[in-house]
Amino acid sequence: MLIRLIEGLFVFWCTILMLRLFLQHGGMHISHPLANLCASATNFAVRPARKLIPPVKGWDMALVVVAFVCLLLIELGISLYIFFSNNLPFNAISVLFAVGHALLLLSVCAAYALIACLVIQMVLSFSDPYNPLMLTVNRVLYPLTRPFRFLRIGQFDFSGSVVFLALWLWVGAVVPYLRYFLQ
After folding, report:
1. pLDDT tens digits, residue range 155-183?
2. Label partner for 15 (CA 20 to 30 A): which of 6, 51, 154, 175?
3. CA-CA distance, 25 to 58, in Å (whole number)?
């Protein structure tokens, strides 16, 4: 139980990293309160990583690498705990499974960050459609929602709903199945 709680906290922090990645790529200025919150929660790990990891085509890869390394370390720790508590040998295959679990958790973090962007878009579309955050979120989500733009009925756009369902299916059904398969 404690292991899953710790893993959940790491997933939450890595989701903040992914949200920061998407907001930066969407062009949000650092002075915005949400961008400032994400930056202040993650700068202690991202600033040193930026000295080693350059951006790639406008994407801050230091954020992705920090999130992956963080998730890999927690998965390796969980694997070590399970193997040593059950007197099992820890080998290279165990490390590969931990890498697979970390990649799946990284995709979950990215999915949660995109779901957060969808929720922000939904709330702002009703309350304040001209908010600067709305422009950033639209830039982030446009590549995902563009194929479903035909679902616009009058002033209502249901393309985000399809993306939300796909992300939720990924997080709720596909990833748990794959994690079970990797055990």
Report:
1. 777 888 999 999 999 999 999 999 888 77
2. 51
3. 7
